[in-house]
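Task 17 of the worksheet. Students: predict the tertiary structure of the chain below and write it out as C-alpha cells. Keep your answer in the requested format; marks are given for formatting as well as content.
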Amino acid sequence: MLASTISKAPQPPKTWILVTGVAYYQPSLTAEYDEDSPGGDFDFFSSLVTKWEAAARLPGDSTRQVVVRSGVVLGRGGGAISHMLLPFRLGLGGPIGSGHQFFPWIHISDLVGILAHALEARHVQGVLNGVAPGPTTTNAEFAQALGAALGRPAFIPLPSTVVKAIFGRERAIMLLEGQKVVPRRTLATGYQYSFPKLGAALKEVVS
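Model answer:
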C-alpha cells in the first residue's frame, strides 16, 4: 500500500529504501551469494522476501530504489543476541545443530551506516547485501567467538531436534540452515564498515 501511494504521489521521494533479509538466498554449505545471485521461491522465508520486495517495487525511475538484504543483526539490548547471552554467560552455549551452516551477520552500527550511505550517495541503487565483509562465519565459529567475547566456554551443542521442538519447523530453518553471503556491491559503492570482523563486533555488543 505504501509503495502504491508513493508511486501515485505528485512529488515522489527521491530515494526509497527497503530492508529485507538474506533468507532470499537458498541455504547451502557450498554456494556463495552476492547481490546478483538468484534466489527466490524455495521455502516460506524466501517466498516471503520475494513477495515483500516485489510489493515494494516502485514503477518508473523517478525514485531511486535500494533494497538492503540484511543478515543477523548484532546489537545491544535486543535482537538475536539477547536470546543467546544467558546460556553463553552460564557456559552452556555452543553451536546450533551441526554448526557447519553459515551465519551471515552484521553489526547494527553498520546496518544503520549502510542505510545512511544508500540515502546520501546518489550513485547507490538496486540490491545491497547487508552483511559483514570479513571471512564468512559458520554457526560453530560464531559460537566460539561469542564464548571468547564473554570469557566462557562454548562447546555444548544444541541438537536440531531440540531447536525444532522449541521454535517450530519454519523458525528452526533460520537457525539450522544458512547462506554464505558476501557484500560485493555494498563494498563497491564505497561503504566503509565500522565492524568488519566478528570478534570486535561481539566485544562491543557484550561490553
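Marker's comment: The mean pLDDT is 93. The CA atoms of residues 129 and 183 lie 5 Å apart.
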